[in-house]
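User: Predict the full complex structure for these chains.
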Amino acid sequence: MASEVRVQDRAAPLAVVRRGVHSQSEEAYLRIRDRILTLDLPPGSLVHEARLREELAIGRTPIREALQRLAHEKLVRSVPHRGTFVTDVNITDLARITEVRVVLEGHAARLAAERCTAADRVAIRELLASLSIGASDQRELMRMDQAIHRQIYRSARNSFLESTLERYFNLSLRLWYLVLDRQVRLREAVEEHVALLNAILAGDGDRAEQTMRTHVTGFEREIRAALVER
Amino acid sequence: MASEVRVQDRAAPLAVVRRGVHSQSEEAYLRIRDRILTLDLPPGSLVHEARLREELAIGRTPIREALQRLAHEKLVRSVPHRGTFVTDVNITDLARITEVRVVLEGHAARLAAERCTAADRVAIRELLASLSIGASDQRELMRMDQAIHRQIYRSARNSFLESTLERYFNLSLRLWYLVLDRQVRLREAVEEHVALLNAILAGDGDRAEQTMRTHVTGFEREIRAALVER
DNA sequence: CCCGGCGATATGCCGGCGATATACCGGTCG
DNA sequence: CGACCGGTATATCGCCGGCATATCGCCGGG
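Assistant: Here is the predicted structure of the four-chain assembly.
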């Protein structure tokens, strides 16, 4: 153990050493994506590349790459020589996204139930513990929901499925932010989460899948109701 | 009509002006993707950016963008300052990909059965007609299979599902190319196609989904068998 | 035999150039 | 007088090639 070099010393040219290394493209992608999801960049708005460039204090290339990535994820739409716009939202897209999510999340829940390891079980029990405390506000609830779904994606042990679901989840997340002010009923959602996680812990794939499908479908119903009343 | 400038003169620096306009990025993406799928760039091999640059006679940016896109689709893996490699294939990935495809393609088939329009029906009948002729060689069969699946994606009337399935189909396509020399049994596949399309034409969602699931599962079994015997 | 420095290579990022599509605006015709 | 039309101005994009940097492989020295 002669070459004891602490990684923190040699890396970190600047300040941020969050978890792992972030290329500027990745950083730009995450930050712009967050702005879109949280509606800081509202649907339909023009994404001003030059403005982002000075706000994020980086060059054009990383931003270009981030926008392209977002375009492939259907979060922005790039019109040649017109500009890049945040994708608009509508009931139809909500339905289309949910259509896929119901099937995919359901299958992920089933796989998670069938495959989850001891480590997964520990993480899931922790999630259940946090759930029993209850969420103070809606944003806290969103974080919980996000953590639960991500855990299930991981437990499904399928990296393809995981990354696909991650993208669809983000699309849904934006819709949730859209109706954040409306107090959508979410007590049920919490209970569904508990039932869902318990089904996974019990290794009951059928029940996990069914519960997840109900959960996602119910989510759509709530969002849709809040959307149409706007 | 004073400014009569023929478009062919100013555009078309090279030769290919296929259908529609291709940006160089798109062109690079399609060509590199094709090379990967057809194993012209074999799994695990290093993707030499400079070589591609001179072979495609374009700059670095389009190639970079194409490679990033391929990386997000898990067709290449980019290791910082090491190089970009074509993603390796293994039985596990085949299983993981199929796992998602079974569910997604099945659902797409169901949706297609429920939603297909008159225009779709015409296209599907044409596909059935081509099928009755029969495929001469295996590559012809691949093209048929591809056309059928794409038609179903379109008929499902869900652009999100369509683009997701497109990506998974390409991942599977490469696996097919991998075992192309092995004469996998495919008579069944053709019959399945016929049954599948007929179920869709009949508007029988349940049967369409079930047939598609069988089809995709059977596909995996054949590929797997050919893969392990290598 | 092991270690440390050096060259080679590929990447991430940058800023600029030419091209292009839109918007605006003044002139002209109905 | 109003509407249309052609030309110009502008903003944005696609693409380019270069620079700085990080990593690996090699080779000579200890």
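Chain B has two domains: 17-86, 91-228.
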